[in-house]
Write a structure and sequence with these properties.
Helix 3 packs parallel to helix 4, helix 6 (192-199) packs across helix 7 (215-227) and helix 10 runs parallel beside helix 11 (317-333). The chain has 338 residues and is an alpha/beta fold. The protein has helices at residues 11-23, 45-49, 108-121, 145-158, 172-178, 192-199, 215-227, 255-262, 271-275, 278-290, 317-333, and strands at residues 2-5, 27-32, 37-42, 59-63, 83-84, 90-91, 97-101, 125-127, 161-165, 181-184, 205-208, 233-237, 267-269, 295-299. The chain has an 8-stranded parallel beta barrel, surrounded by 7 helices. Strands 2-3-1-4 form a 4-stranded antiparallel sheet, with helices on one face. Strands 5-6 form a two-stranded antiparallel ribbon. It folds into 2 domains: 2-63, Alpha-Beta Plaits (2-Layer Sandwich), CATH 3.30.70; 83-333, Aldolase class I (TIM Barrel, Alpha-Beta Barrel), CATH 3.20.20.70. The two termini are 37 Å apart.
Amino acid sequence: MIIVLKREATQGEIDHIVKKVEQLGLRSMISRGVERTIIGVIGDEAIVRSQPLEVYPGVERVIPVLAPYKLASREYKKEDSVIPLSPTVSIGGRKIIMFAGPCSVESKELLMSVGRTVKEAGAEVLRGGAFKPRSSPYDFQGLGEEGLRYLREVADETGLLVVTELMDPRDTELVERYADVIQIGARNIQNFNLLKEVGNSKKPVFLKRGMMATVREFLLSAEYIISHGNPNVILCERGIRTFETATRFTLDLNAVPLIKRLSHLPVVVDPSHGTGKYNLVGPMAKAAVACGADGLMIEVHPNPEEAFSDGEQSLLPRKFKELMSELAPIAASVGRTI
């Protein structure tokens, strides 16, 4: 349920409505838009419908939300969400934000080399896994806190931000200490305890679509995070599993304009995981920008054949620089910048 407030609604009237909602055992979330302030009411809609909310001072109208993902929906918020990643970097606006770096944090020296390169090319966020969910228990699992420390040190020296994956709710405080953005990987999209945990965080959450998740399930996972108090969710399309075996996954670019119709949240595309092939990353990155992506996540490694993970889908640093220059005119053609 959405309570739309009058333009002239006072803070006292807003506080009164929120208090009444919470006395009913429901939760409320306030969203201050360009034209209107609204209050999202979360809980048993039968309780909400039994209350004469439209006669409360400051209320213009009450609207039921039909989508199962209430707070993530366009019904709840008409305008695009612009999510601050730092005081100077936001995603969801005119500028397309670039997340770039190696799949795994392997060493500080390698990470520094990549960080300097992607920063010079125009990236804003350094990506790298300190905790790696791998299909085989014998594959490299990441450097843990040592890797987190390298990410922070390189980011601080280069002026980049850090996005890295959180896999275990017990590591939340540790990851928050080093990261600017917390990533929830594809395999954890329905780890609901983890989603609730980052819902209590103050950090933006980078939520990757599960390889078998529908768009509806994807948005419901975002809803878990938002409903627990964290509205700063960034969605990432990274490919889904289909019958096709020529590529690692099928990069579902249909999802970008579709999600942007259904939801106000920003959408990033990961063509590295979505294709699994370095020579497809560029074409799909360009297509992602053309169809409305708010950001790209691209794996970059100076020596892919010796990468600890995902070397086959990583771009060489010089290829990343070339791609950035090639993306600029495509972004301009759709009213965006790189």
